[in-house]
Amino acid sequence: MIGLLAVRADFGFGNPNLAGALFAMLAVGVWVFDGCKGLHPSTRFWICLAASACFAGLMVMTASRGAVVALVVGLLAVWWTAGRPRAKGWQMVGLAGVALLLGIFAGSSRMGSRVAGSSAEEGSITSRLAIFQEVPAMLAAAPNGWGAGQSADAYQNWFQAPEDARTYKHLLSTHATWLVERGWGFRFAYILGWVLVVMFCWKTPGALGVWVAFGVAGIFSHVGGDWRLWVVPGLALGFAAWASARMMRWPECRSWRNALAVALSLTVLLYISGQAVNRGIFSGRGFVKAGSGMPGKWFFAPDRAVLGAAYGKVVRKEKSAGVAWEIAPIVNAAPREIVLSGRATIPAGGAFVQPYELLWLNPPAKLNEAQRGVVEQAAKKTMVWGELRTDANPRELKSWFETLPDGRWVFVKGKALFLGEWESESLF
Predict the structure, then answer these.
(1) Which of 18, 23, 28, 168 has a Cα-to-Cα distance from 232 of 20 to 30 A?
(2) How far apart are CA 405 and CA 367, in angstroms?
(3) Distance CA 19, CA 296 (A)
């Protein structure tokens, strides 16, 4: 038993935080039956308390601190919207007893050590703080969003501290992930959706508590990314709709207007906060630029095998530079310098504006017609080859390249295909 409590249980979700969020919502959601008729109020209370305690106990086994916060805030929402009732007599004894038992259970399990060990220096906390403080800037940098599934990649490349090598699948939060990945239209709709849910469930305390717990859990983990965690909130919303229909108790027109105003105000506040912490990053269609003004240096279609997964950190070392995956942004910018890496697929007929200087890091051994054209059109060109590369032989490419005017071939000693951490003198 002690060994079981020493590990974080995920109950088949693959992530203890997701399981913890589910049990927190269930522990809150059972109180929806406290308002149902058919049983004596005291009987309903004890049944709801027992069920809530069981689910809370399962939540403790996940050792999810975010789930604890979700549970507490969700229960407070239930208590507040139910009229802040006061427990008396044996009910007070029952609540105190359950709290004591859960506290002892948590203290003897992994939950206790995690809560006791919480500090601003802990990796789980520092990673979230580092990401959350950059979310407003990420929103401002991409008015149309960074793209579905691209939030973590955007953070690691353009906003993460250069010395921080941690990688992520998302932004460790449902709200942050979805708001960053999509544009301002979705951001407003997303905020409005949450405001409407709160308004709709306000007079059904148990249902409101479930959504509050779900929303709080979504701050600390990406709970919205698993469809299974939407089942309980969906049932809670359905119960609230059924209760409203049975009682003919629908939100008034004024409530809908107020909800719209609140959502709009929050969206504007989010926009202003992003502008206040602008990092000089801007994401447009097919490009991202860093620094002030129009970039004089563009990295076209960066190859992660050469520059690394966090290639944006390499780009950010420049005073003003950009990354483009399409020809158009570079043509419109008329850059002085263009950096290619690895295979650097050039569209057929693609051409950059002239004159420009070209730097190609670890090019393929054989260039197609479009790639050769880009090299030949450059006023000055430099090719860099890691001497330890085993994927290709540069002999034929080097022979052709040396026939071109204003060309420079550079061998980098001790390096292979990856050149992301390679520091050199200016090659332009």
Answers:
(1) 168
(2) 18
(3) 49
